[in-house]
Structures are given as structure tokens and as C-alpha cells.
């Protein structure tokens, strides 16, 4: 079976098989962003689950730009306590000989008001979502950009020193680097805005700074949108060009995803505005795997290994994606929040993984008519993500999951926990 075959990356590192746990934010760090025993327990369980590679959830380089309360934060070279905590986490996460890569990120304008009402971004375009949860951003100065580039490199080196076996730069899903890539969000007139070359400058500077710090043999990956699926946004043609630049920049694996909070295609969820169609030939595998056609179109033009994430549930679709050369690595997210050994199951012949997302509904059946409304669809989709957050919390703290956990209860608990974490952080000063 091709999913069991190892993959050799350009830097020489070998992934033992083709299945990877995609990055999933954990929210399990201390209020000041340090790794915990809960993170160790969670990743130990995932390491036992059979994936050749595990990606961490967002590790954030600026505590004022969390993707979510409870993120691990690395702003500068770690002190002894932080270094020890990172090392224990990496040790647990690699206990079965699999890879464990750190996803390094910055929330930019997708930082919730609860964390920071005045976030920084490429320019001052506020997120177009109802509910007033996101503040109007201030454009980063060039000095601030240079500082962030350095932080990405420092955080990567800290993870390498701690025993992580690779890093991933998060340039997808509408977070800071994705904001720079988008012509809708990036209205800058300096050399970080305008042409694609300028919009991709931050990403390429980050990759170069990391490579200079971690050396030639350490895997560097980038998670990139195949498109933002928005009118006037980062389009497939842009993405293809950026992939070619990343290949030249010594990136070892590019993970293809798509969308943002405004257009959550990454989860197969519809946003409030109509998705902008992209110019890519459709295939049958794509009925299940959201971005496989984009990866197929890319593979014919580049030789850098690609990981494709989003929607994969059947072994047949995964094997086919590898077979046709669309994916060198298949990313798995939601199924592994409950079926933590999903990769082993597939490698031992299971036909498919559970689709928990299909039965998670915030809106009860008697209010079913609301689901016709675009806004309610979006809210329902976001609430379901909190159910997965709750499963991750239970794995970390109790070592088990609860498939029957009510969606609304998960939403309330996770929301309250987020607020508690921010209160505790405020007390720390
Ligand atoms: C609970 C949860 C947390 C996530 N956190 C992250 C994250 O920290 N970084 C990231 O790049 N993607 C994140 N994602 C997106 C996943 O990596 C993946 O792209 C998405 O779930 C689609 O894959 P799936 O259909 O196999 O779930 C998250 C998804 C879920 C469900």
C-alpha cells in the first residue's frame, strides 16, 4: 500500500510513511504560553497513533497576536524552563520514531479582541465578520516586520534545539503571512505590497532567515493556500508562482490548504460571501479531498514534495491522491481528534475514518430552517470546531475522548476557558 511507503525530503530527512497529523491548535499551554504536561500527554497519544509525522498546532511568535488563548508562545530565545518544557513535549511527541514539526505563526488581524483589540496586520483592513470580535488592524512598520522575521527564525531554532524534527511556517488560512499574500488585505505601497513578488517578500524572508539558523539538513515546510477563494484575493495562479519560489528557497514540503476565517474552505465550510471559483480542472477525488485538484495542477510544474490536507476520509481517496502524484503526504485533521490511531487503522487496512463533522450541529432540528441562512451556516461551522477543541482538551487532561459530548456544551466550556486563560494572563502582567 503506497501510504506505508517512506518519503525522502530534499534536505535528506525521511518521513516513515505518507500520513501526517495536520496542525490543530491545542489551547493547552500555560497562560504565559509555556508547554504543559497536557501537551505531552496529547502528543504521546498521537505519536502512538501511527502517523509518520505530527505537526504541532500554532506556536505563536508574539503573545499579543495569539491565534487562540492557550497557544504556545516563543518570542525570544527560551529560558531554561521553556527549553526544558519544549524538550519534554518533543520527546513525548516522537516516542514512536515519527517526526514532530513545529508550526510557527502570528495571528495578525485574525487575533480575537479578547486577546488584543488593536492587532497589527499588513494594512488596516478589518476582518469582514459579524459579531465585532476582531479589531481594526494597524499596519506593521518595516522595523516591526524585520523583528518578526527574526522571531520566526529564533522560534525555529529553539524548536530544533529542543528536539523537534522540523518546522512549518504557517502562511495559510488568513493569518499574518496569508494577510500579506492577499491583495485584498495587503494594501501597502512599500516593497511588502503591490506585486506578488512584494506580497510574498515576508514569507520568503522568513524562510531564508529560518534556513540560515537551522542549517541545510533540517526540514522546513510552508502551509500555503491554494487560493483564498475570495474576489480579488490570493488566487490559484498566485499560489502556483509562490510554490515555485518556495521550491527555489529550499523548502522541503509545501502543505496545500485554502481559505480563511472569512471563507473557511479549509474545513469544507461555506463563508458568508460566495466563494470565488478558481481555474482548475475537476477530478473525482476532489469530491472528498478539497484541495487535491490544486495540488495535481501544481505537481506538474514543481518537484518539491506536497502535502495535501482537507477532507480526506477514505483510504481509497488517500491512495489515489498519492498514486496520481497529487500528494506526497496526506494530512489528517478532525478524525484524529477522536480516532487518535486513525493512521494505524488505515495502514492496517481500514477503509475509512469517521466523519464526526457531519453530525455536529449547534442548531437543533426544530430550528433547521435557520441552516438555510448563510450566516447561520457559518456560525454552525465555527461552533463545531469547538467540539474538536474540547476533544483535544480531554485527550490532554484525561487521556480519553467523548464522542457523545454535546456541541453546545463544548462551545460554552471552551469559550469560558478562553476567557479564564486571558484573565490569568492579565494577572501575570
Ligand atoms: C480543532 C482544529 C484546530 C485547527 N488548528 C489549526 C492550526 O493550528 N493550524 C493550521 O494550520 N490548521 C489548523 N486547523 C486546520 C487543519 O490543519 C486542517 O487543515 C483542517 O482540519 C482540514 O483537514 P480535515 O478535513 O482532515 O480536518 C485546525 C482544524 C481543527 C479541526
Describe what this molecule looks like in 3D.
- This protein is of the alpha/beta class and 429 residues long.
- It contains 12 helices and 13 strands.
- It has helices spanning 37-47, 80-93, 142-162, 176-181, 196-199, 201-214, 236-248, 292-299, 315-323, 342-347, 374-398, 407-428, and strands at residues 7-8, 14-15, 19-21, 53-60, 72-73, 99-105, 120-121, 138-139, 166-171, 220-225, 253-257, 306-309, 329-332.
- The strands form 3 sheets. It has an 8-stranded parallel β-barrel with strand order 3-4-6-9-10-11-12-13, surrounded by 6 helices. A two-stranded antiparallel ribbon has the order 1-2.
- Helix 1 packs parallel to helix 2 (80-93) and helix 2 (80-93) crosses helix 3.
- The mean pLDDT is 94.
- The structure holds flavin mononucleotide (FMN).
- Residues 22-25, 57-58, 103, 170, 173, 223, 257, 266-267, 309-312, 332-334, 385, 388-389 line the site of flavin mononucleotide (FMN).
